[in-house]
């Protein structure tokens, strides 16, 4: 009976945290950089929606920007983009994600990287929201 009660309390806690996350206001848009500061094939590190959440912004070609949480979905190691191979690499456990979609390609990660939505307004790039995704 004790195990059953603990399991129910654990499930309740997960449901409560999910509800709480859904009730939270969306984070405000935040300027990341000027578009001219991000070279084609380059990347930029930033933090969003707060100073505790490292993110990467990658410009694989002239007209494309993609941004993701920099924490691997396996054990939160910092991921690194490899634009030439169209991958994001987790060096800790040889995990690989698609640069285009953030979905896992190989290794231990089972979930896609959280996507950071970005908008270009004039010559400025803004982070506008975080999308938590599942496969």
Concise overview:
The chain has 135 residues and is α+β, with helices and mostly antiparallel strands. It has one helix and ten strands; from the N terminus they run αββββββββββ.
How would you explain this protein's 3D organization?
The protein has one helix spanning 2-23; strands at residues 30-34, 42-47, 54-61, 64-69, 80-82, 87-90, 95-98, 104-106, 115-121, 124-131. The chain has 135 residues and is α+β, with helices and mostly antiparallel strands. The chain has one domain (27-131): Rieske [2Fe-2S] iron-sulphur domain (Rieske Iron-sulfur Protein), CATH 2.102.10.10. The strands form 3 sheets. A 4-stranded antiparallel β-sheet has the order 5-6-7-8, with no helix packed on it. It has a 3-stranded antiparallel β-sheet with strand order 1-10-9, with no helix packed on it. It has a 3-stranded antiparallel β-sheet with strand order 2-3-4, with no helix packed on it. A hairpin with a 5-residue loop joins strand 7 (95-98) and strand 8. The chain is globular. It starts with a helix and ends with a strand. Residues 1-7 have low confidence and may be disordered. Keywords: 2Fe-2S, Disulfide bond, Iron, Iron-sulfur, Metal-binding. Pfam families: Rieske. This is Rieske (2Fe-2S) domain protein. One of its GO terms (molecular function) is 2 iron, 2 sulfur cluster binding.
